[in-house]
Specification:
mainly alpha, binds zinc ion, single chain, 653 residues, 34 helices
């Protein structure tokens, strides 16, 4: 390396300042070429600047370029190593960072200042799960005074946690001379992520100085492992809640299927003057989507517009699209989608496609996909999940096969188990049970519960006892506590009038202690959600009103030729009894309540927690014609738009 003096100092200054302004690798290359011409490439400081900027500027391709320049110089100094080690530890190739660190140790004579690269190399070991290398770096640290440095020790703790060696992390934590709030927080988060809830709580109770991060970590961790009550307890303990605490608690409610509590919490947050951020809005929108009633969602949408919160980039646009389609307002979902005319993220496209899928708008979903192709937007695996389910919800077998083919051949996406599940579902719903089984036999992994459930429900629908029985037993092996497979199997037997077998399934359920999830339908009337459970109304006041309306409906429909479909009833009671209990399915009660209380021109929206049964489906179809009402039912799987005697699902559900 040469030293430069005199007029060339000016050249160095101007080259470095142009380098700092570089906006692309292309520009950087040009300056590099200029440096070769002027021999500046042998000047340590300038070439160091080039490598540092390449490593750390975040320019696309910068890191690899920096590495190639690095490989051409002799005697690189410590700061060049630091930049590259840091750059690669943040990249998708963290192993390179470890290689460079080892290289640095072997070629630098003076190891002064290597502590600056320790957090980076530890991070790289964690990210690449390199346990042996991580332990070596740790051993090296123990021989120096850095073992007293809480900053370095915290990095070691996080590394072991990333690798999944939580006990090693704890040992480091216990031996620390001085723990700061970050040490406590990392250890608590590590336990939570490892699912060690008790240990996390123990440490949380001992934490000398909890900050808002400690609390947030506990709320988030409890929420993610399904301990919503405990999350609540910690949340209420906090005196100074920030927006992240509120959001973590809302997400815990959403995960625990308590969307109403999430929404109430959001309102409470607003009333205390806490301004929601993007994450809070996404969380409350997902709660509203689960709840299924659009009014609150429209209000949030107005709030977003009034406060000039940008829809994109970010997740708000896709959260709005999801919410509107889950609430049955696919037109509004379309509208939001069009509003983000440019700068649409892949998430926005995917949300619309899967929204269209659940509404049975298969053709429309395909058209959106063709738009994507025209605009040269690269679809991802989620796009194809949406497309495949759109095809299966509409019985579009050929189109589904086409999507499955181009996904692999044109876009090089390796199908995951969920994609195969969609293919099973696609064939099954269309009644091609043998082809559906063929997918299960040829797919490269073991079929999961969802795939077998798809076969089971297709067999129920198409009355295939042999295939259905086999599938039901597979589901029972994989998920013995899932009541739906027992119900479906007994429905298959009932359809084939094999009452002895129906009784056997019932006995099996009893012996195994499997409980049927009670059907529950809700409906929004005048801003209030009313819930109906099978045979037992929550709202006693409207009891007699609803029952007499159901009777009236049943007798009007009888005139139109309606016969209750008794084959799908699991209950072993007299035929007549079966007829009357069918009348008390929760969706029929919600519908009766809606007919009485919702003005004529407005559509009736009902949300059901389980799959709608065949009888209710044909019942509601007839009601939509006889009473000239538009009725939208969201069941566990999809939307049914009933109008003038037919349903948008065309029987595929
Ligand atoms: Zn029903
Ligand atoms: Zn339908």
């Amino acid at each position: 390396m040469t030293t430069i003096s005199g007029p060339q100092t000016l050249l160095v200054t101007s080259t470095v300042s142009t380098l700092e302004k570089c906006k692309s690798i292309y520009e950087m290359r040009q300056i590099h070429a200029h440096m070769i011409k002027t021999n500046l490439v042998n000047h340590t400081f300038t070439v160091g600047k080039l490598i540092t900027l390449g490593s750390l500027s975040g320019l696309s391709g910068g890191l690899d370029y920096a590495l190639s320049v690095f490989s051409q110089i002799r005697n690189p100094n410590a700061s060049i190593f630091f930049a590259l080690i840091k750059g690669f530890s943040d990249s998708s190739n963290p192993l390179q960072s470890i290689i460079l660190y080892a290289h640095m140790l072997s070629c630098l004579k003076e190891l002064n200042g290597i502590e600056f690269s320790l957090p980076s190399v530890l991070k790289a070991c964690g990210k690449s799960r390199s346990f042996e290398e991580g332990r070596q770096v740790h051993a090296q640290i123990l021989k120096t005074h850095f073992r007293f440095d809480p900053f370095v020790s915290n990095s070691v703790i996080r590394m072991y946690e990333e690798i999944g060696e939580i006990e090693f992390a704890r040992r480091v934590f216990d031996k620390m001379f001085e723990r700061d709030v970050i040490s406590w927080n990392s250890m608590i988060t590590g336990y939570l992520r490892a699912g060690e809830i008790e240990l996390a709580r123990g440490l949380f109770n001992k934490t000398p100085k909890r900050d808002v991060v400690t609390y947030n970590a506990m709320i988030d961790g409890y929420g993610k492992c399904g301990k919503c009550g405990l999350a609540e307890e910690v949340f209420r303990m906090m005196s100074d809640k920030d927006v992240v605490s509120w959001t973590s608690m809302m997400s815990a409610y959403v995960l625990d299927h308590r969307p109403r509590q999430a929404l109430d919490l959001f309102r409470e947050m607003l009333s205390l003057g806490v301004r929601p951020d993007a994450a809070a809005l996404v969380s409350v929108l997902s709660a509203i989507g689960d709840l299924g009633f659009v009014e609150e969602g429209k209000w949030i949408h107005t709030y977003i517009s009034a406060n000039k919160i940008t829809l994109s980039p970010g997740f708000i646009a896709s959260a709005l699209i999801d919410m509107y389609s889950k609430c049955g307002h696919i037109e509004n979902a379309y509208h939001v989608f069009r509003c983000v005319s440019h700068r649409k993220s892949i998430g926005d496209w995917n949300s619309l496609i899967s929204g269209l899928a659940t509404h049975g708008l298969g053709q429309e979903a395909l058209e959106i996909f063709l738009d994507m192709e025209r605009m040269e937007i690269e679809p991802d695996e989620i796009t194809f999940l949406g497309l495949l389910s759109a095809c299966s919800h509409r019985g579009m077998v050929d189109e589904g096969l086409y999507c499955f083919k181009i996904m692999q051949e044109k876009y090089n996406i390796v199908p995951k188990i969920q994609h195969y599940g969609c293919m099973v579902d696609l064939y099954g719903r269309a009644g091609l049970l043998e082809d559906a089984l063929g997918v299960i036999q040829t797919m490269p992994m073991e079929a999961d519960v969802l795939a077998w459930k798809a076969i089971l429900s297709a067999s129920t629908k198409h009355g295939n006892v042999t295939i259905g029985e086999n599938a039901a037993f597979r589901v029972m092996d994989l998920a013995p506590e899932d009541s739906s497979c027992y119900v479906l199997l007994s429905n298959i037997y009932a359809k084939a009038r094999r009452w002895d077998d129906v009784a056997k399934v019932r006995l099996m359920m009893k012996q195994r202690g499997v409980r049927k999830i009670p059907g529950c339908s809700s409906i929004l009337v005048n801003g209030k959600v009313h819930e109906f459970l099978v045979r037992k109304e929550m709202d006693v006041r409207n009891n007699s009103e609803v029952l007499s309306k159901i009777e009236e409906m049943a007798s009007r429909l009888k005139l139109e030729g309606y016969e209750p479909d008794l084959t799908q009833v699991l209950l072993e009671i007299e035929e007549e009894g079966k007829g009357s209990s069918l009348c008390h399915h929760s969706e029929k009660m919600a519908l009766a309540f809606g007919l009485v209380n919702i003005r004529n021109s407005a559509p009736i929206h009902i949300v059901k927690n389980l799959r709608i049964c065949c009888d209710c489906h044909s019942f509601i179809k007839l009601v939509s014609r006889v009473y000239s009402r538009r009725i939208v039912v969201r069941d566990q799987n999809r939307f049914h738009h009933f109008e003038d005697g037919s349903c948008s699902c065309k029987g595929y559900w």
